[in-house]
Amino acid sequence: MRNSIFSLALNALSGHKHWQPTWRDAEPRAAYDVIIIGGGGHGLATAHYLAKIYGITNVAVLEKSWIGSGNVGRNTTIVRSNYLLPGNIPFYELSMKLWEGLEQDLNYNAMVSQRGVLNLFHSDGQRDGYVRRGNAMRLHGVDAELLDQAAVRKLYPFLDFDHARFPIQGGLLQKRGGTVRHDAVAWGYAKTASARGVDIVQNCEVRGFIVEDGQVVGVETSRGSIRAGKVGMAVAGASSQVAAMAGLKLPIESHVLQAFVSEGLKPLIPGVITFGAGHFYISQSDKGGLVFGGDIDGYNSYAQRGNLPVVEDVCEGGMALMPMIGRLRLLRSWGGLMDMSMDGSPIIDRTPISGLYLNAGWCYGGFKATPASGLSFAHLLATDTAHETAKAYRLDRFATGHMLDEKGQGAQPNLH
């Protein structure tokens, strides 16, 4: 069913009794042209673009749980393209442009809100770093605006300017950045992929690969064997586990990243703010809750929950930035599994095993990259060549020395 004002009115007249399911909950077939492991944002986006752009519809998306149960529903909803390195800026700007047209593309309300992303700086060194980043963005055609303290105070007068331990000197603003409803992204991509013939198979856990003559020709699942011409992995924090079934050891560690939501408030924070003197970022949801997060928990984990020391650290960052939130109650928290790569940048490439393709290593950047990741992975699966904006995301860059270390932290996945 296509969403429109007419379908809304028609269903309203019938008491909303005739709405169709958003997507087909398909039964797995014996064979497909392409199998995508992982029913999160990246896997579903890949299926959508395979069907829409390349006409490949004999595709199955296999999800071990339910659609939206992973990181696509466990993030702080921020989208942006304010990157520094040439290998990253074009990719994330492509994603930003796809976000801007996503609702029309999917015929689905994903609540794309370009409310602006402001990165605060608190020292001369940070200012110089943001000047460099802003110039790099503008050279690539990406919007960037450097604000002084007066301009930041005009935008966000409630921040602590006068008594802060780390006084705010200014910020780098990307007005086109903002937030998107994370669950709706999964639902929208699932809807359009399913409508084009893609099978979305829930509760179907991959437990092994079928390998013949050194080539992956299918997967073993909790619902039987399924064969395929090509198999793509898009499983985020489970990347190392799934790859190990094929005998691959990836340059990835898994860490949990917590996010938090407060009780509802009247409109307070119009955009997205990041704290420059600590890892803290915050926005306000349409329901009024403050949505915020910070650093990953500093240990390897496959659990979708974190520990109290990180809760304390994140809240301390918020209090240092805006003490007025000290009386707020936290309603809930959750954890996403981050596939932290050795240089903090993703991998979209063929693996050394013929027939097996990899989409992984997204670290903190997975949600904002969803559309471009899906488009690039679909291009790779369809053509066996890297998409123009994803050529730097090779798996062998760790062997050849062509790292994309956006933060300059070296080969320490927990620091990216």
Q: Which structural class is indicated by helix and strand composition? A: alpha/beta
Order of helices and strands: HEHEEHHEHEHEEHEEEEHEEEEHEEEHH
Ends distance: 42 Å
Tally of strands? 18
- The quaternary structure here is single chain
Give a quick account of the main beta sheet: strands, pairing sense, barrel closure: 8 strands, mixed
Protein traits:
eight-stranded mixed beta sheet, 11 helices, alpha/beta, globular
Report on this structure.
It is a single chain. With 416 residues, the chain is of the alpha/beta class. Helices cover 28% and strands 27% of the residues. The chain contains 11 helices and 18 strands. Strands 1, 2, 8, 9, 10, 11, 17 and 18 form an 8-stranded mixed β-sheet that branches. α2 packs parallel to α7 (182-195), α2 (41-54) crosses α10 and α3 crosses α10. The protein is globular, with a radius of gyration of 21 Å.
Question: How are the SSEs placed, and which strands pair?
Answer:
Blueprint: H1 5-13, E1 31-37, H2 41-54, E2 59-62, E3 78-79, H3 89-100, H4 102-106, E4 117-121, H5 124-139, E5 145-148, H6 149-155, E6 170-174, E7 178-179, H7 182-195, E8 199-201, E9 206-212, E10 215-221, E11 224-233, H8 239-245, E12 252-264, E13 272-275, E14 280-284, E15 289-300, H9 308-321, E16 330-341, E17 347-350, E18 356-360, H10 370-383, H11 397-400
Parallel strand pairs: 1-2, 1-11, 2-8, 4-13, 11-18
Antiparallel strand pairs: 3-7, 4-6, 5-6, 9-10, 10-11, 12-15, 12-16, 13-14, 14-15, 17-18
Helix pairs in contact: 2-7, 2-10, 3-10
